[in-house]
Design goal:
With about 260 residues, this protein is α/β, with parallel strands linked by helices. It has a single domain, classed as 4-Layer Sandwich (Metallo-beta-lactamase, Chain A), CATH 3.60.15.10. The strands form four sheets. It has a seven-stranded mixed β-sheet with strand order 10-7-6-5-4-1-18. The chain has a seven-stranded mixed β-sheet with strand order 11-12-13-14-15-16-17, with helices on one face. The structure holds zinc ion (2 copies). One zinc ion binds next to loops. One zinc ion binds next to α2.
């Protein structure tokens, strides 16, 4: 599975790095060129030709940092594609998109435009806990513990599976599903705040590095590589240092522009 990291932070911000500025973007992962997982960063990082190849957009939840460039993607693709893009998510997310974003006030309703018979987007409800085949991948959404309805995903390609946590605080069902998964190759797990902000993490329902380690341990697969993401750009350095001290065998923080082959 090819996972291209378009954006992997918990906010958008330009930060100073050792080799120059780093443009932190919100979450967007392009998988095997055709499936986009979360739409925080897509329109601004892909050529039009690459955006045209996207057939399915999977969404973890409705928070703005995960959907903010979905309107941009729609805008870029009007008149550019033959078949609609499938927007796949749990019902709460699909309802919220129609009600709050593509409502004709904030943005045009791309579920009906440019022509109700041939709209730009079609929605597909994903049953939690069940695998659905999309773009040749087995996609299983598993509800997680966040401040709004949210899921993490298991993505299976043949006998290889990867886990992406989405935004979550302490949870169980996702790790149980990961422990049962066939050929788990990697766990992408959110780590939004540094350890000293554990109280804010609890209230906002996110993880810190120490919490990430506790949650990852529930899979009981210490050999599986962990990729931390959704770092708040302001605390990037501190979180990265704390991740390095966890004692997890393989743990790295994801970076924009990186491609994982899993
Ligand atoms: Zn988020
Ligand atoms: Zn969130």
């Amino acid at each position: 599975m090819n996972v291209r990291v378009l954006g992997c932070h918990g906010s958008a911000q330009l930060v100073a790095g050792d080799q120059g500025p780093i443009q932190c973007g919100t979450c967007g992962f392009l998988i095997n060129e055709t499936l986009l997982l979360d739409a925080g960063t897509v329109g601004s990082r892909l050529y039009l030709e690459e955006q045209r190849r996207i057939r399915v957009v999977l969404l973890t939840h409705l928070h703005f940092d995960h959907i903010r460039e979905l309107p941009t993607l729609g805008d870029n693709l009007v008149g550019e594609i033959e078949d609609p893009i499938v927007i796949a998510a749990i019902p709460e997310v699909l309802d919220g998109l129609r009600r709050h974003i593509f409502n004709g006030t904030v943005y045009p309703d791309f579920f009906r435009l440019p022509d109700p018979a041939r709209p730009l987007f079609v929605s597909r409800e994903l049953p939690p806990g069940q695998e659905t085949l999309l773009c040749g991948l087995g996609v299983t959404p598993v509800p997680v513990n966040h401040v709004v309805p949210a899921v993490g995903f298991l993505l299976r390609e043949g006998s290889r599976t990867i886990l992406l946590s989405g935004d979550t605080y302490r949870t169980d069902a996702l790790w149980e599903a990961a422990a049962r998964a066939e050929g788990l190759q990697a766990a992408l797990i959110e780590s939004s705040f540094p350890d000293e902000m554990a109280e804010l993490a609890r209230v906002a329902k996110h993880l810190t590095p120490a919490l990430l380690a506790e949650e990852f341990a529930k899979i009981a697969r210490p050999d599986v590589p962990v990729y931390a993401y959704h770092l708040k750009p302001r605390f990037r350095q501190q979180i990265r240092q704390e991740l390095g001290r966890l004692g997890i065998r393989h743990v790295t923080a994801l970076e924009e522009g990186q491609t994982l082959v899993l």
